[in-house]
């Protein structure tokens, strides 16, 4: 896991391939905070202290579990597309 200059995270797989977060239909990393603010302004999205309420009670973060979930999500391929090997996924 790497912390990038803009504060975003990059995940590097053991084989060296990079797992960056991208929004559907966007070509850039989600780490561009200036663009995120513009997008929120344009969409009239307002985020404040009441936007999200946590149920966290101070437990320690399970980073292994978090990475396992993120990697599992990265392996999923949307239906009707081809996977890394070019095989069609139903």
First and last CA, distance: 32 Å
Q: For the report, how would you describe the main beta sheet? A: 3 strands, antiparallel
Shape: extended
Low-confidence stretches: none
Beta-strand percentage? 5-15%
**From N to C, what is the helix and strand string?**
EEEHH
Strand line-up of the largest beta sheet: 1-2-3
**Mean of residue pLDDT values:** 75
Structural class: alpha+beta
Radius of gyration: 17 Å
Helical run tally? 2
| Number of strand segments | 3
The helix content is 25-40%
Model description:
With 90 residues, this protein is α+β, with helices and mostly antiparallel strands. The protein has a domain at 2-48 and 61-75. The chain is built from two helices and three strands, in the order βββαα. It has helices spanning 33-42, 63-75; strands at residues 2-3, 9-12, 18-19. A three-stranded antiparallel β-sheet has the order 1-2-3, with no helix packed on it. It starts with a strand and ends in a 15-residue tail after the last helix. The mean pLDDT is 75.
Summarize the structure.
The chain is an alpha+beta fold.
Keyword list:
90 residues, alpha+beta, 2 helices, extended, single chain, three-stranded antiparallel beta sheet, 3 strands
Outline the secondary-structure elements.
Elements: E1 2-3, E2 9-12, E3 18-19, H1 33-42, H2 63-75
């Amino acid at each position: 896991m790497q912390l990038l200059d803009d504060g975003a995270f990059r995940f590097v797989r053991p084989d060296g391939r990079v797992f960056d977060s991208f929004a559907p239909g966007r070509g850039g990393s989600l780490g561009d905070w200036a663009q995120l603010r513009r997008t929120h302004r344009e969409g009239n999205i307002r985020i404040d202290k009441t936007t999200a309420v946590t149920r966290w009670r101070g437990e320690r973060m399970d980073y292994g579990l978090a990475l396992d979930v993120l990697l599992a999500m990265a392996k999923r391929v949307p239906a009707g597309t081809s996977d890394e090997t070019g095989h069609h996924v139903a």
